[in-house]
Amino acid sequence: MSKYVSWSCVVSNPYYSQCVPGSSGSSGSSGTSTSTSTASTPSLTGIAATAPTTPPSKLTGMLPALGWNHWNAYGCSINETKVLAAANDFISLGLKDAGYEYINIDDCWPLMQRDPTTMQIVPDPSKFPNGISGVATQIHALGLKMGIYSDAGTATCAGFPGSLGMESLDAATFSSWGIDYLKYDNCNVPANWTDSSTPQDGDWYNSNSAIRYRQMGGALAEQPNPFQFDLCIWGAANVWDWGARVGHSWRMSGDSAPTWQYITEIIGINVQHLSSINFFSHNDMDMMEIGNGALTIEEQRTHFAAWVFLKSPILLGTDLSLLNSTQISIITNSELLAFSQDSTVGTPAAPFNATASLPTTSIPEYYSGESSKGVHVFIINTSSSSATKSFAFANVPGLTGSGPFILHDMWTGTDLTGTYSLSSTFTVTVASHDTVAYRITSS
Fold it and tell me: Annotated catalytic sites, by residue?
């Protein structure tokens, strides 16, 4: 039995036509009629039937991105001078040598209106007198890469032009400017593009939210240069289940804050979805807050270590010129960065039972993971005072053989005195909110 209704197609671009019914009734993929089906696997209908399925580029994004983003430092008060200053700080502070490469512009870079003739987004000439392409040229000349920001809605979070329905034009524009990375936000989404219920077939890849990101992913794939694609979707629509089919990383929550509460909350969220992390596939815990707020040095060490061992993108979010030598030593620690950027092992560290009896904590405190250099143990002290922490070597996943083992402090780059066997237990005093990091190898 079929029910015919009138339809009005309100949006059309190379990837989809957005059509709405003129009266009540169900619809088929043609937008004109439906019929009851007895097929065991139902066909996708509407926009989901024609949305792009192009996977993200494999020419970029294999490892967690290392870079800088302007938002936490400057908000809407961004301009060419500040962006280029960050790029030059990458050189002078040794960040480029440590592996950092992306200089990313966030919201507030364009004019409020698109060009009425070309419909392109227009960089604000008062902020970027040489245009975005002029900045990109200078950043590329330093051997770095450049990122830009847009939104999978009608406007960005600050009210500037969004890319919903304009994906092909905007992707081509960004490509022509020399952009290497796109952060794609989730503000100002029309009601008909949100998800009010479980999507078709229960597959969130076919949800309205995912399709908005798939549209931009398909547009980026058509460009001559590869884009690293960060889905800034705030952990919505079960993104960890489908994000790797669309982009290289995806935000797990709302915006970061320079607080211990944020650090522990986002760790707690991420550890529930560690199976989503591997090469080209990274849970994004949001931009770094080192150098911001009232975080203690110990909390900043934990901030950095957790982003490393959970293989989140690390995008510094502060005025780099104001960092002190201790903060710079944290973010350029070569041994921790090597775990993040390991090209042999793509999986993160994961919680483990360090001893037979562990106290209940707000988030797991003990993590282990493998790299091409050995087996690693990371311990967070979540308490408000120093605490004694222990782990049994026999409990460390991936540790093989009976020993002897060498325990190496990844913060200091030195081996600890003595050797250990599989029957050994190691004990250390950890400062409040600090994280210790070790590598275990056979001697």
Answer: 185, 255
